[in-house]
User: What shape does this take?
Amino acid sequence: MLEELRKQRIKEIEELREKGVEPFSYRYEKTHNTKDIKDLFDEKLKAGEILEEEKVSTAGRVMSLRDHGKSAFFHIKDSEGRIQVYIRKNAVGAERYEIFKKYVNVGDIVGVKGFPFKSKTGELTIFVEDFEILSKAIRPLPEKWHGLKDKEVIYRQRYLDMISNDESLERFKTRYKVIRLFRDFLNERGFIEVETPTLVYVTGGAEAKPFVTHLNVFDIDMYLRIATELYLKRYIVGGFEKIYEIGKVFRNEGISYKHSPEFTSMELYWAYADYNDIMELVEDLLSYVVKEITGSTKVMYQGVEIDFSKPFRRIKMRDFIKEHLGVDILEDSDEKLLKVLKDHEVEVPIKSRGHLINKLWDLVEDKVVQPTFLLEHPVEISPLAKRHREDPRVTERFELIIYGREIANAFSELNDPVDQYQRFLEQVKLREAGDEEAQMMDKDFIRALEYGLPPTGGLGIGIDRLVMFLTDSPTIRDVIAFPLVNPKSLDEEIEYEEEVE
RNA sequence: GACCCGGUAGCUCAGCAGGUAGAGCACCUGACUUUUAAUCAGGGGGCCGCGGGUUCGAAUCCCGCCCGGGUCACCA
Assistant: This one.
């Protein structure tokens, strides 16, 4: 059926060309988009009224079509919405009308010129005086009423999802608006957007398994970055004081509703600031973004109201775990931590102190729903954070937790090269003990610190996870336009008939 | 990686006590100048995910595999 349909459409394209009509145009003067037209005329017009002097020219994809013989109604969709269009034989002429009737189908992209009116039933409509086929579709669209439901097709052919499910297009518009708001906010505060390498010799800045690739010119293996942190700090050493980078990072790990091997982070470094300054900045940034997106400080996520008004709640990791599990991550022995984990039936493949602490946190993180700063992580699990000025066992670090998920991670950056070197050594030991996610020694980074990194506050935010909240998306794949999919050997055969006749 | 659910027309889905494969939308032909899931008449369209087995006979039952979704595990 699909093949027959495609052939039919390809044949129609030939016929159009024989009639001197090119079904793939070069450009179209679009004076208004669908939203402009609604903004201008929707309130002005009553049912049955016309505004013949107001000329509009717009374009979009035909989403529905109701043919009435000598006239037809259809809806076109553009990036801003949908609008109804009315075409009538005696208005465009018999010849043009025949072209429309015979050759325009749902799915085609057309341009229309005319004037606005309101139908009997009160829907704002464009009365067509002239139209043009701008791009003829060869494949049929999914069902107009139910839309596209098949998750596999939604992820593999996102364009089709965006065409047929309006909320999908809107979701991605929101995503990119959020990113723009981040830039607006930070630029306004004097932060400069910079770039760091994607291909790196050693990974750092996070604990994750990297993707490995090969660089032919030097014949060496390289990695895709797992974070932008260590290069951004080099900028600060070099003299930049307020910088940020928004970009993809790559972690060769599992896929879940909140994990994607390729995701977007925003990292920021602010010289002469500490984690308290960063906390305030995060509150300001997020409440600003949320307000611009939703109009208030509140977001409904999966039926739960999340309030981003500041200040956010602050809890200390040690206190929170002690309160809920009765164990002290700073004072109690490894054995005691392990026993608590065993009591909760948690398996611990790697029995380092850091892993035990992380596992304990995992047990309680679900209890944090509203935006909360989780403070003062132990040194063992924070190899790049500065020790707390009042307690050297913990760091000046915080994570922003929302709905049990880590959204941001920040600290007063460790700028003591000797301490940093020792922390890296600890990580290397873990690595040698089989922890593939432990950090690598980055000697050039140490060298940079030896030239002097000013006191600096740093921050990383998971953009995708934040966008999930702002679009009420249950999985991270819903906010990544083209998520990773199994390539499968499904590549369908696409054949074009040879020219006949 | 384990378990659960699913894969039938381009799309959304039904059919599964085993007996020649269905609907709606979309498509094609015709009618219709204010419809909006337009309407009316007619028509075409299927490797029922793939491979094997049981059976006179499999979309339906059994086994294996592939792909997807979900839960858990792994994981920031």
About this structure: Chain A has two domains: 2-141, 164-312+370-478. Residues 318 and 330 of chain A are 7 Å apart (CA to CA). Residues 2-141 of chain A form a domain with the OB fold (Dihydrolipoamide Acetyltransferase, E2P) fold (CATH 2.40.50.140). Confidence is low (pLDDT under 50) at residues 497-501 of chain A.
